[in-house]
Structure formats: C-alpha cells, structure tokens
Amino acid sequence: MSDVVQLFCLPHSGATAQAYLRWTKLLPRSVEIQPVEPPGRGARTGEPLRTDLVGLASDLADELLPKVRARYALFGHSLGAVLAFEIAHALIERGAAAPMRLFVSASAAPALRDDRTKAKPLTDDELVDELRRLRGTPEGALLDPELMALVLPVLRADFLMAGGYRYRRRAPLPCPVAALAGASDDVPAAAIGAWSSETASGFAMKLFEGGHFFIHEREREALDFILDGLAAVTAGRAAA
Hints:
Blueprint: E1 5-10, H1 23-26, E2 31-35, H2 53-64, E3 72-77, H3 79-93, E4 102-105, H4 124-134, H5 139-142, H6 145-164, E5 177-182, H7 189-193, E6 203-208, H8 214-217, H9 219-239
Parallel strand pairs: 1-2, 1-3, 3-4, 4-5, 5-6
C-alpha cells in the first residue's frame, strides 16, 4: 500500500464530509479518499461549530498529523480550499512532510479573498437566498424545513468563519498547487490564478464549464485533473 496516495478532502461551506463519498467509488485504489469532517456537522454534529478558520485548521492539523503518510495531498472546495491551505501550513509547521500537491477549487487566492460581508450573522432567508444564488442545492431541498434546520446553522457558522478570516503572508508552500475553477463562477479567473504566489514548486490551473459547483457538473473531468496532478508529482518523486 506504500504507493497509495492519501487525498484529504475539505468540504465547502455548509457541507459535510459526505460530499466526497462518491469519490471513493470513482477514483482508483491508488488514491485513498480521506474526507475531513470539521466539528459541528455530519458525524461530529454533537460538537460545537467553529467560526475561527485558522484555529480550526490548527486543530484539524493536530488530528491529521498521526494519520498522514509520506504520500498525501489536500483538496478543498470554496471555503474548504482556504482551510486546506491553512492545514498544509500547519502540518508543515508540526514537522510533517509537505503534501504532494494542494488542490484548491472555486476559491480566490487567500490574499485576495474579501468576505467581510459575511462577518455578521445572516438570517435564514438570507442564507437560503445565497444557496439559491450559488445553484448548488436543489430547490426541493431549500424548501424542506427539516433539512434546512440542519444545514443553515452550519452554513451560518461557515460564513462567519469566512468573514473573520485574515490572510497571513508566509513563505510559499514547498509543494505544487493546482487550482480548479468554474468558467461562469463569480470568482474571477485572475483571483484564482493568484494562488500561484502561494507555491515555490509549480502551479497549474484549469477552467471547467459551469458555475461555483462545477465540481458536481463536471465531476469526471475534475477528478481526471486531480489524478493527472497526482500522477505528475508521483512521477517526479520517482525520478528523483
């Protein structure tokens, strides 16, 4: 199993680790999907929700440190991309090897994110309007009060987390960074391309048809991009 790459996946705002369960069936056995569940949702519903992104990244790094092997990568979508970025730094600070690659999806580079409008709690109606705008949640789900009673508190906390995040400049990561983006997403391509300044080891970026949740609309294409990225760094290490 030494040739297996662990892929730790961070969910987007309001989501749980279950967002990545499909990937366990769609990716080859050479990639071991490790969905990361932040507190307050999914299997960790009984724990308090967090609104401090850097603090959460630190705690998740502590949890992941005993689990990461030499061959691992991180993936995050939207807010999860920034969380994955902070976890990468935190793991390296704790003495772990750098990830083979950091995959960031549907997020501006952390230095360019401006989520100050989310720094104050939004009402349920405002949160539902935001979900509707992003077009990642079926309308039937938005109209289900029992489901929304579970989702909206998590989404509200995640928005507060985004609104309170403050980027801290550090030395670029020693691992390659690969960015994925939806061609019709509100996040400008240039802001996603700015992730290139966060790596000292190579940058790749690909645009996919679709909006903020292109990751669902173009799932197979996105997974192929991830596999290609892992294969490239694996080949590089083997050659070294």
